[in-house]
Amino acid sequence: MAPALCAVCKTARALIKRPKNHSKLCKTCFIEVFEDEVHHTITSSQLFFPGERVAIGASGGKDSTVLASVLKTLNERHNYGLDLVLLSIDEGIKGYRDDSLETVKRNAVQYDMPLKVVGYDELYGWTMDQVVETIGKKGNCTYCGVFRRQALDRGAKMLGIKHVVTGHNADDVAETVLMNLLRGDMARLSRSTSIVTGNNSSEVKRSKPLKYSYEKEIVLYAHHKKLDYFSTECIYSPEAFRGSARSLIKQLERVRPSAILDIVRSGEDMARLVPGESPSSCSCKGKSKAPAEVAEDDIGGCGSQNGRNPGNEMAVMDKQLRENEEHEAHEIDVAKSTPRNEGGTANKKWELPVRTAAVASKVVKGQVLGNCKRCGYMSSQDICQACTLLDGLNKNRAQIQI
Amino acid sequence: MASSNPAGSLLKPCVKCRAQEATLDSRSQAVCRDCFTKFIAAKCIKQIGLLAKETPTPHYGQPRRFVVGLSLGPCSAALVHLLNENVDFQLARSRPAPFTITAVYVDPHPARKAEDDILEGYRQRYPRFTFKRDDDDGKLDAMLNSLPSAASRSDIVRLLTRHILLAEAVSHDAQALLLGHSTTALAELTLAETAKGRGFSLPWVMRDGVVDVVVSRPPSSSLTSSPSPNQPALLPPPKETKTKKMLIYHPLRDALRKELITYLSLVDNPPPLLTTHIHHTADNDKADKKVVSHKDLSIDEVMIRYFADVEKEYPSVVANVARTTGKLVRLLSGDSSSSQKLCGLCGAPLDESGDERWRGELGIQIQEEDHGEGEDGSGSGNKKGGVCYGCERSVRG
């Protein structure tokens, strides 16, 4: 039997079965199709403007390495006119980050892009190794996640760049959609799917050009393009809620390859269905919520497969929800008994009010964005999360020194 | 059960009544058998009470008419049992029966004896209710076999079952269609529909409320003589259709599946169950779980398996999923009279702005067409044929 031919060029032998739709392609066509799809994402979402300076959040892992490679290729092929810079965060984790930073340094040479490394120690006075020494391995990913989010923005600011692209892929987005459904976090659900976060009013906007790219295809692309990337996971990453969502996604993908993209689609659509009042807006719900709250999209920030949430998060949440249920039994919900004009309450079924997307999104973004009084970083609280966490850390350090 | 013992001498008194030995764990409280069954019944009665307010009696003193979807699994069985208890309770107080029930079992396969026997068991156990089996002698079976995968068949069966139940409710002139979804089932449904790309229509599926039912005239097409809901599958609804409104209600939305299974094990003379029913695998049999090939699994089954574990360990997480997604709003009216286009397969409003925004489509249909097609050129003309994103996916694989 003759070998199967590539479904696109119909001349070369098909060597790759695309994870996304199981079509059989040759190596050259796969690489081209992958790049075309990212190009399509970039142009249809109007991510960039000519002459824009863009920082690529580079960890040395497969996603950001592929992102850098594809952006460089597309920038040259389609004349985007972008000024691309690699921006790396040094969390200060020996045996993990120092090695991956070496990869980024090689990438900078390979792709002929300037590289800026921003360290947690220079930004916060703490390396992650020191944080872990102080607070232990449990919960340290919260610190790392909060710190990194700011670090990328601050690094970009140092470079005078207003746009940071990250290597988040379709699996990451799908995972976040399921995770937020599992957590019942509608507000975050509506934020997590958009391709661009932040806008003209925020100093630095973020975007995810690989939002529709499958993780498996990213790995294939890196493999066939022989890209130089670092594949060790963070040594501190624990089991997490995210892990549960991730394994579920892997199962779904096996049943129906398009499932990942389908979840992303559902997430985008559901973002528009989130009612004005988010269930997590009540401050009494969630003692553990304060440190976990993030400024914008809560999407697996570190290169780790496991994410940044402390272990047994599901158990903690279950316990908390149970406590809430008990408390609810003792209180009268005034809001429930008063008819609200903005949303169909559970008891009002015949006439569900028609709401437009504009109204829905406006209400969800109701959090007032200000600036941290201490560091000036955007925050909905007086003191931003990073500063709050730092306060705790510094208190500990002072005691230790005495 | 040592119910006659005074509270002081009990080993572990029920935290609710303090009069009986606690033998069960109900939401981390040790309770007795009676308090547990009362607790479950109360969850159902509360919803039935709300439903009664929504549905005025057709004529004074006349009972309401409800159609119940029957799967022969534990949750819909528990629903039938609880509804029967409710009627018993009213009659015992010399009040008129509050409602009549027609329970419909939709079977995509040609008649099988096991199901018939179980339905007969229902008829004997609950003589006040009517039990009906809805199948069409294998015509549907043939159509389903032409679908590309087990996951695809499962999706379509779910959609058609819903259509058929709605059509039954309309043809019985019922005031509501009652579905036996537990909290767990609703949480599964939420994530399964999300995974099928059906996030947009979730509020129509999850929430209690009115939906439009497209009722077409008796067979005018030469394709088949089967009743309306079975046929339109891959075609837009024919011109001579009209729509009716039907209220869908989920009276067991506040009870977990494991609680309903426990409930059934406690009641006297429980209804018969179909042992091959998928929900039984979710119950305990772990060893059974690992062996199935992913080729034979559906998205729904993956979710059932997943939530069986979550329910065991973290029941409140399950409840929270169902509760919060129950708050998603229906973005479009879903009212066909307002020129809103409905999906020809699932009947949910077509989300045109969602299609327009969607950027993730390219490359999917590379096998059929040359690549390079613009956004949302999602395939072979189906788009214009009025099928939503999720249904397109379901039909293709």
Automatic annotation (TrEMBL), chain A:
<dbReference type="InterPro" id="IPR035107">
    <property type="entry name" value="tRNA_thiolation_TtcA_Ctu1"/>
</dbReference>
<keyword id="KW-0067">ATP-binding</keyword>
<feature type="compositionally biased region" description="Basic and acidic residues">
    <location>
        <begin position="324"/>
        <end position="334"/>
    </location>
</feature>
<dbReference type="InterPro" id="IPR056369">
    <property type="entry name" value="CTU1-like_ATP-bd"/>
</dbReference>
<feature type="binding site">
    <location>
        <begin position="57"/>
        <end position="59"/>
    </location>
    <ligand>
        <name>ATP</name>
    </ligand>
</feature>
<dbReference type="GO" id="GO:0016779">
    <property type="term" value="F:nucleotidyltransferase activity"/>
</dbReference>
<dbReference type="InterPro" id="IPR014729">
    <property type="entry name" value="Rossmann-like_a/b/a_fold"/>
</dbReference>
<comment type="function">
    <text>Plays a central role in 2-thiolation of mcm(5)S(2)U at tRNA wobble positions of tRNA(Lys), tRNA(Glu) and tRNA(Gln). Directly binds tRNAs and probably acts by catalyzing adenylation of tRNAs, an intermediate required for 2-thiolation. It is unclear whether it acts as a sulfurtransferase that transfers sulfur from thiocarboxylated URM1 onto the uridine of tRNAs at wobble position. Prior mcm(5) tRNA modification by the elongator complex is required for 2-thiolation. May also be involved in protein urmylation.</text>
</comment>
<dbReference type="GO" id="GO:0032447">
    <property type="term" value="P:protein urmylation"/>
</dbReference>
<keyword id="KW-0808">Transferase</keyword>
<dbReference type="InterPro" id="IPR020554">
    <property type="entry name" value="UPF0021_CS"/>
</dbReference>
<dbReference type="GO" id="GO:0000049">
    <property type="term" value="F:tRNA binding"/>
</dbReference>
<dbReference type="GO" id="GO:0005524">
    <property type="term" value="F:ATP binding"/>
</dbReference>
<keyword id="KW-0547">Nucleotide-binding</keyword>
<keyword id="KW-0963">Cytoplasm</keyword>
<feature type="binding site">
    <location>
        <position position="63"/>
    </location>
    <ligand>
        <name>ATP</name>
    </ligand>
</feature>
<dbReference type="GO" id="GO:0002144">
    <property type="term" value="C:cytosolic tRNA wobble base thiouridylase complex"/>
</dbReference>
<protein>
    <recommendedName>
        <fullName>Cytoplasmic tRNA 2-thiolation protein 1</fullName>
        <ecNumber>2.7.7.-</ecNumber>
    </recommendedName>
</protein>
<keyword id="KW-0694">RNA-binding</keyword>
<keyword id="KW-0819">tRNA processing</keyword>
<feature type="binding site">
    <location>
        <position position="172"/>
    </location>
    <ligand>
        <name>ATP</name>
    </ligand>
</feature>
<dbReference type="Pfam" id="PF01171">
    <property type="entry name" value="ATP_bind_3"/>
</dbReference>
UniProtKB/TrEMBL annotation, chain B:
<comment type="similarity">
    <text>Belongs to the CTU2/NCS2 family.</text>
</comment>
<dbReference type="GO" id="GO:0002143">
    <property type="term" value="P:tRNA wobble position uridine thiolation"/>
</dbReference>
<protein>
    <recommendedName>
        <fullName>Cytoplasmic tRNA 2-thiolation protein 2</fullName>
    </recommendedName>
</protein>
<feature type="compositionally biased region" description="Low complexity">
    <location>
        <begin position="217"/>
        <end position="233"/>
    </location>
</feature>
<dbReference type="GO" id="GO:0016783">
    <property type="term" value="F:sulfurtransferase activity"/>
</dbReference>
<feature type="compositionally biased region" description="Gly residues">
    <location>
        <begin position="377"/>
        <end position="388"/>
    </location>
</feature>
<keyword id="KW-0819">tRNA processing</keyword>
<feature type="region of interest" description="Disordered">
    <location>
        <begin position="217"/>
        <end position="240"/>
    </location>
</feature>
<dbReference type="GO" id="GO:0016779">
    <property type="term" value="F:nucleotidyltransferase activity"/>
</dbReference>
<keyword id="KW-0963">Cytoplasm</keyword>
<comment type="function">
    <text>Plays a central role in 2-thiolation of mcm(5)S(2)U at tRNA wobble positions of tRNA(Lys), tRNA(Glu) and tRNA(Gln). May act by forming a heterodimer with NCS6 that ligates sulfur from thiocarboxylated URM1 onto the uridine of tRNAs at wobble position. Prior mcm(5) tRNA modification by the elongator complex is required for 2-thiolation. May also be involved in protein urmylation.</text>
</comment>
<dbReference type="Pfam" id="PF10288">
    <property type="entry name" value="CTU2"/>
</dbReference>
<dbReference type="InterPro" id="IPR019407">
    <property type="entry name" value="CTU2"/>
</dbReference>
<dbReference type="GO" id="GO:0032447">
    <property type="term" value="P:protein urmylation"/>
</dbReference>
<dbReference type="InterPro" id="IPR014729">
    <property type="entry name" value="Rossmann-like_a/b/a_fold"/>
</dbReference>
<dbReference type="GO" id="GO:0000049">
    <property type="term" value="F:tRNA binding"/>
</dbReference>
<feature type="region of interest" description="Disordered">
    <location>
        <begin position="367"/>
        <end position="397"/>
    </location>
</feature>
<dbReference type="GO" id="GO:0005829">
    <property type="term" value="C:cytosol"/>
</dbReference>
<comment type="pathway">
    <text>tRNA modification; 5-methoxycarbonylmethyl-2-thiouridine-tRNA biosynthesis.</text>
</comment>
